[in-house]
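Discussion board: Methods & Data

I've been asked by a reviewer to show the raw model output for two of the constructs in my manuscript, not just the figures. I'm not sure how much to include, so I'm pasting the format here to get opinions. Each protein appears as its amino acid sequence followed by a line of discrete structure tokens. Is this the kind of thing reviewers expect to see in a supplement, or should I convert it first? Here is construct A:
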Amino acid sequence: MTQPTQDKPQNPIHLVIMGVSGSGKTTLARIIGERTGRPVLEADDLHPAENLAILDRGEVPSKAKYVNWLESVRDWMSEHGRAGESTVVACPALTRAHREVLNEAEGITFFVHLYGTFDVLSERMSHRIGRDMPQELLVAQLELLERLHSDELGIQLDVTRKPEDLVDDALASAKFAETAYGSES
């Protein structure tokens, strides 16, 4: 079996897999990373301990704390973008303002919004592997969530579909965006 290769486009494209807790962001990001050979970031890994404690209580960090965290995610994306590397990032990016911070990254930012009903997401959270997040966080995130606007670069995908289909749709849509913005990969 051959190793996946990393294309080095003129305009690196950052696939931001976004959505609330339980939507499968990390799973999808890892699969895309394995398939494409792109570096993958679980954005929660960049949260300071103080933010994680807030999240563990089922709350969303203050706007200032959240923006500081998003800026560190953006900076990670930019570092790779300057090196000509496209990336995959699992990050909630719940509001347009959050996504605007990520859009400042070097390269093209393409959002893959994974969405589902409260019941579906809640059930998925109860079976998640890894860091447990309280149901209160799901409620808070759903209240904060703004779906992608028509002028934002991205696609919305239903989480009840098979992961392989979600990956195929995400990559095909991102490839279309990459082509439309002059990349050569």
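Construct B, same format:
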Amino acid sequence: MKTLTVLANAWAGFWAGRTAREKTLLTWGGALLAVVIAYSVLWAPAQQGRAELRAALPAMQRELAQMTAEADEARALAPAAQGAAPTGLALKDALAASLTQAGFASPQVQLAGDAVRIELKNASFAAWAMWLDDARRQFKVQVAEAHATALKVDGQVDLTASLQPPSAARAGH
């Protein structure tokens, strides 16, 4: 606060010693200097930035259109990127391996036309349902036919099911 008082006193002493003509010149010079500083610090960079953005806008719009087209193409190709579903012997082998990996004891897997016939004895129905959901997603199969017989032990079943790849299921309907 003391420094501010000292500066104010110094300025008052300087200003009091000036003639009317010097005061007018200093006032106009200070105003002109303030306008030049405001223009060079605030207005000119903003105008230059606007001009650069205006010049870059068409290129940005082209890039946006290209990215949008590429995103649409990627969305259209996404199902194909998931891979083709196995059919025939490849599907039979894949399902047999999956059943064994899931812990089903001695699954009987046979090819029956386009479908794969699965027979399980004394299997957990809950485990079968979880495996079937995974197989449906992984191998893109659909259940064409299923038959389960409950056993004396709760949750255990003997079951027979026919699974088809989606192209065979569509052709059959």
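Answer (T.O., handling editor elsewhere):
This is acceptable in a supplement if you add a one-line summary per construct. For B, something like: The two ends are 92 Å apart (CA to CA).
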